[in-house]
Design goal:
This protein has 307 residues and is α/β, with parallel strands linked by helices. Helices cover 35% and strands 17% of the residues. It contains 13 helices and eleven strands. Strand 10 and strand 11 form a beta hairpin.
């Protein structure tokens, strides 16, 4: 749905702009720098100016690389106890502050990907109150988990951004309910088993999430007493509207992209039930609601549960 700017030629070095206009003509609807932050603020400002000229939206990760350094966990109680290299909240909020200031100057539409802290929620809320054209999402992992879930070096909980403290998690939930946070994402980053079997600090960050997004959204909605319709909007209609594409809804002449599921049936998360190449997730062994029966794309059945 969107192009990671310059991946094929520039290797995400963040030094040169891609040909946004040509890519837009080829069908791109938004532009990002993938999971790599743009550390050169001059280049970021140029990219935003260019995008604003053509009314493109830009998707950015709020991450100050120099402050992340070699960190692997939230700068808090667990990292201290386990001796893990910390990632402070300001690594996110300083980068987010730069993004918001540039949005205020340029007026470009920006989507901030995967905020993880209470401070970021407050900053996004203030930006929206100023009518800045900014939206954001949160990983489904960060709505359920906190730094305490790392337990005794559980590498499935090695994520970027890191799992923060329980107060951050609760305020992320509240921010999603009040509309400060617009959408939920799966943060799908499948990792090979070998890369997760290393010590926590040496393991690769990430977890499979695509197959869990529906079920974990239902679980979150139930804990927040949120209606099924409102919960599903956060992973369907609202993300589509952020991308300005005609999707995520059921209506006459709309594309018949449909997921048919039973919210009352639970399924167990195991390596065998996951279809993704990466079997690593913090939710292994859990029973989750929302058993998918059929998946249709353009009216064609592409998945049917066998039993």
């Amino acid at each position: 749905m969107f192009i990671q700017s310059g991946r094929s030629l520039q290797k995400l070095k963040g030094e040169k702009l891609t040909e946004m206009a040509e890519l837009r003509d080829a069908g791109c609807v938004a532009f990002s720098h993938a999971d790599e932050p743009i550390t050169n603020l001059h280049v970021l400002r140029q990219a935003m100016f260019y995008a604003s000229t053509f009314n493109f939206s830009v998707w950015l990760r709020p991450q100050e690389t120099n402050l992340v350094n070699k960190g692997v966990a939230h700068d808090g109680e667990v990292a201290t106890r386990l001796g893990l290299s910390p990632i402070p909240v300001c690594a996110e909020t300083i980068a987010l502050s730069n993004i918001i200031l540039l949005v205020r100057e340029i007026g470009v539409r920006v989507h901030v990907c995967r905020i993880s802290s209470a401070e970021s929620v407050a900053m996004i809320r203030a930006a929206k109150q100023q009518k800045l054209p900014i939206t954001c999402d949160v990983s489904i992992n960060h709505l359920h988990l906190s730094e305490m879930d790392i337990g005794f070096f559980n590498t499935n909980c090695h994520l970027i951004p890191p799992l923060r403290n329980s107060q951050d998690r609760d305020l992320l939930r509240a921010g999603l309910i009040d509309g400060t946070i617009d959408a939920i994402c799966s943060d799908h980053a499948p990792i090979d088993d070998d890369a997760k079997l290393l010590p926590f600090g040496e393991s690769e960050a990430g977890a499979s999430g695509l197959e869990l997004l529906l079920s974990l959204t239902l679980k979150w909605a139930s804990s927040m007493n949120l209606s099924l319709t409102d919960a599903l909007r956060s992973i369907t209609q609202i993300p589509a509207s952020i991308l300005a594409i005609d999707a995520g809804h059921l209506s006459l002449d709309a594309a018949a992209d449909i997921c048919i599921f039973d919210p009352e049936i639970y399924w167990k998360v195991t390596p065998t039930t996951l279809k993704s190449q990466g079997k690593n997730t913090p939710f292994l062994g859990m029973e989750l609601p929302g058993c998918v029966k059929y998946t249709l794309v353009n009216g064609n059945i592409i998945y049917q549960r066998s039993h």
